[in-house]
Design a protein that fits this description.
There is one protein chain. With 189 residues, the protein is of the alpha+beta class. Helices cover 19% and strands 38% of the residues. It is built from five helices and eleven strands, in the order ββαββββαβααβββαβ. The chain has helices at residues 25-31, 74-81, 95-103, 111-115, 162-168, and strands at 7-8, 13-16, 34-40, 45-51, 54-59, 62-69, 84-89, 119-121, 135-137, 142-153, 176-188. The strands form two sheets. Strands 2, 3, 4, 5, 6, 7, 10 and 11 form an eight-stranded antiparallel sheet that branches. Strands 1-8-9 form a three-stranded mixed sheet, with no helix packed on it. Strand 3 and strand 4 form a beta hairpin. The radius of gyration is 16 Å and the shape is globular. The structure holds flavin mononucleotide. Flavin mononucleotide binds at residues 33, 47, 49-53, 68-70, 73-75, 102-107. Residues 33, 47, 49-53, 68-70, 73-75, 102-107 line the site of flavin mononucleotide.
């Protein structure tokens, strides 16, 4: 299903260093959850999904974010077809919205409309144009914009603890890992 039209991000967004990202990534992602969003309206469409696995770190001398998407997710195709993705973080009051985006598929519903979220797109007037074209949400408290650097499909033969396979996979739908260079952390002024 076509997702809700995006509106231009207003000038309430300010760029910060990723080193000022509030809280520990384990807590913010693992407990607080995030929305992974990829695609743009101008490229056809976009989609978002909830994730609680991922991280922030340093690789190849660059600040990076990493995330994991199963091929069965509608978001998978958007993450593969577009150079940018965003990670949006929310206050606790948006838990129901994040639950919906983690239970329903953008194949079937207009997620943002049903979750009460407003998709925004950054243009060249924000963050020196680094985030241009990336889609996030007006209601987010922080949005991390990433440029894909590397992807890799999990290989069942490479798992060293068989419990991981038993608990997380039924023989298929192994995650694809995405490592993205953090090009911008946007927060509210
Ligand atoms: C708390 C939570 C965390 C999730 N984390 C992930 C994740 O890290 N990777 C993933 O592929 N799916 C994850 N999911 C599942 C997707 O969010 C879910 O399947 C979603 O409906 C996919 O939407 P889509 O088909 O529109 O892409 C999570 C779901 C929830 C509720």
């Amino acid at each position: 299903m076509k997702q809700k039209s995006v509106i231009k991000a207003d000038n309430s967004w300010v760029e910060k260093s990723i080193r000022e990202f509030p809280g520990s990534p384990s807590e913010r992602i693992g407990s607080g959850w995030m929305l992974i969003t990829a695609g743009t309206e101008s490229a056809g469409d976009w989609n978002t999904m909830t994730a609680s696995w991922g991280g922030l770190g340093v690789l190849w001398g660059r600040d990076v974010a990493f995330m994991f998407i199963r091929p069965s997710r509608h978001t998978f195709g958007f993450a593969n077809d577009n150079p940018l993705f965003t990670l949006s973080f929310f206050d606790k009051g948006y838990r129901d919205a994040l639950s919906l985006c983690g239970e329903k598929s953008g194949r079937d519903i207009d997620k943002a409309a049903e979750a009460g979220l407003n998709p925004i797109v950054f243009d060249h007037s924000i963050a020196g144009g680094k985030a241009a074209g990336a889609v996030g949400f007006k209601e987010a408290s922080e949005i991390i914009v990433c440029r894909k650097l590397y992807t890799h499909d999990f290989d069942p033969a490479a798992f060293l603890d068989p419990v991981l396979i038993e608990k997380s996979y039924g023989g298929t739908d192994y995650h694809r890992m995405y490592i993205g260079e953090i090009v911008s952390l946007l927060t509210k002024k």
